[in-house]
Design a protein that fits this description.
The protein is an all-alpha fold and 247 residues long. It is 76% helix and 0% strand. It contains ten helices and no strands. The longest helix has 40 residues. The chain starts with a helix and ends with a helix.
């Protein structure tokens, strides 16, 4: 991805004199490679920093739906070993069935993300909630289901148990290990917003100063600071500003 951005930037830069209307010759390709490598090795280069910013944004920014889908995919991937142990279980003895039930409780907690499956008080609360809708005596019926139906029931049990725990927390009768997200967000969002706003103001100030320097250079035909470096710095800041607004 980084190379693609770099190649595009080099080819489209008129100073490099690449003809985008025709296929690149062997010499063009060698020149392109050399120019890209030279740029990547440059130090204190606003132009390179701009490309890095583009790459970072392209690789890290997603809209809300994409973010949620990726989170869901990662969660499912991490839960696969636990899910497999449950759906493939052939528990028969009392001890084995109790072990299977504990694994179901752990799976419910891991999928919900509300509390640690190693916290005794959290496990105790989740177990009580699960027993109210899925007592251990139901394991025989559960084990007779197909793998797909077992997975579906595990997802449904997670939703039900999570709902019970959230309801109990709201009533002040439970909710062990469940963070107070509204309170956390009410504190974190203004702080994050202030940091972004400060960075935006700083970036706008740099844009104003760099632009004023360029205008002065043009009016007085000055050669310091280096005009191209100054132009690159303005481009960098102007790209930085909308990038900050996205976050």
């Amino acid at each position: 991805s980084g190379w693609l951005f770099m190649v595009k930037a080099v080819v489209l830069d008129p100073d490099n004199q690449f003809n985008v209307e025709r296929t690149l010759t062997k010499d063009d390709v060698q020149k392109l490679i050399k120019t890209c490598v030279d740029r990547l090795l440059m130090s204190a280069s606003p132009s390179l920093d701009t490309i890095k910013m583009q790459v970072y944004f392209d690789m890290n920014y997603t809209n809300r739906n994409e973010f949620l889908e990726e989170h869901k995919r990662v969660l499912e991937s991490r839960l696969q070993p636990v899910m497999r142990e449950i759906t493939d279980s052939r528990a028969r003895t009392r001890e084995e069935l109790e072990g299977l039930y504990r694994k179901i409780v752990s799976c419910v907690l891991l999928r919900s993300g509300l509390g640690s499956p190693t916290d005794i008080s959290v496990v105790r609360e989740a177990t009580a909630a699960l027993q109210s809708v899925f007592p251990q005596t139901e394991l025989g019926t559960f084990m007779s289901l197909t793998k797909r139906d077992k997975e579906r029931q595990l997802r449904e049990l997670t939703q039900i148990v999570t709902g019970i725990r959230l309801f109990n927390k709201e009533c002040g009768k439970g909710g062990e290990g469940i963070d107070n997200l509204p309170s956390i967000l009410n504190e974190a969002i203004p702080s994050a917003t202030m940091n972004i706003e400060n960075e935006l103001n700083s970036t706008r100030l740099f844009i104003s100063r760099y632009t004023a320097l360029i205008e002065r250079q043009n009016a007085e035909l000055l050669e310091e600071p280096e005009p191209d470096m100054l132009r690159q710095a303005v481009i960098n800041c102007r790209q930085h500003e909308p990038s900050l607004r996205f976050y």
